[in-house]
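pasting for ref. prot 1 ->
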Amino acid sequence: MKADVELNLVHDGEQWIARGDALVAVGETLQDVDSNIGRALRDSGAFPRGSSVTVFMGFDFDTIPTWLRQYHTHYFNRYITVNL
């Protein structure tokens, strides 16, 4: 699957943060982040209304201890589709 937008995903202990070149979306849950990504994409004007945008969120492995990374090789990456 090819993404139209790629974001870095972290959790700061209180909320999820998805961040890219010109987009930041924050939320207490992943569902909140997904909604805020949709809102940010609509506000950006980078994609025409009515389009379908595929967003890849790659989890930032640097946020978990090195010794634990070997057990979480895919912890976790997400794709969502946002209909504008």
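and prot 2 ->
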Amino acid sequence: MAELATIARPYANAVFDLARRDNALNQWSSMLGVLGATSEHPTVKMLVQSPDLQSTVKAFRLAEVCGDELDDRGKKFLQALADNDRLDLLGEISAQFEALRAEEEKSLDVEVISAYEMSEAQNEALKVSLKQKFEKEITIETRVDTSLIGGAVIRAGDVVIDGSVRGKLAKLAETLIAV
């Protein structure tokens, strides 16, 4: 998986630089998001991985599937990836682009998985706390997972904070086994 990230990085950096220069981060984010999601669809994935089709045909068909979601720049980028046999990197390029964009905009998307529905006051308190910790604007997405028993798991970029009862019990069991 690290190899995929390494190969995708120059493409993500190049398209990010282009988007920043043209003041088009939102447009590129949208196009790459559509391309990344579309390329993960099982039927499209088979098309992209097919040895029977030329890369230019794969790129053309993928652009057809995406329709009006791609402008000419997006189609040219897709063709450049096809010319280098890199269409399978679309999902990773999209993810890296979003990370670069978040860094540029000093924002951080945070996922909070809690055992119970969080109140608006809890969301706001967590947002303030995370803003101080990371020094970025915070966007919180929450979901409920009752298997956590209690507490929450917070994913903020590369940081995972496991404050769930299930996580604490797992650590306790690990400690007891090690002794």
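The mean pLDDT is 91.
Strands lie at 107-114, 137-144, 152-156, 159-162.
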